[in-house]
Amino acid sequence: VVDGLCGREPPCRSDYSATWSLEEWLQLLDFLTGLFSLAVGSNVPDEEVLAKLSDVDHSHAEAVRSVLRARQEEIRRALLTRTNSISSAILQDFDWQLKLALSSDKISTLNTPLLSLGLDVRENGALRPITMELNREELSTLVSSLEAANKVRPQGRCYLINLWL
Predict the structure, then answer these.
(1) Which of 43, 103, 153, 159: CA 20 to 30 A from 86?
(2) In this predicted structure, what is the pLDDT of residue 81?
């Protein structure tokens, strides 16, 4: 299962057709792929992994945990590669400043808080700075959009969106 997750040849169903039906086989593959992805992508502790395997014989649960720990870095690299393949742009760094706009050329008293957000995005090897200025409503919309995107990500996959503001 880990081989399939890491882009190599997955296990062949015909080797296990006497043990599991097609539906059981697909459920098993989906469960283990999701478990490995979640455990590595979210740094789930061993106790929590074993708790998710509570319905499984202890020796089988230990075997899954052992495979997970032995191939953790390989799984992490595969998940990062899959995530990075979504876009060629990668957020390298960011910086933010909170400002208070006191007035503008059109309004003498403004008193509006603004967030100045600077993103350093690496795209095709070149670093491209992106700067934006957001008012309270725009920032709220951005945060809501990122939270919504994080909620609809496929369960068991490692597509994490973190905003450190």
Answers:
(1) 43
(2) 83
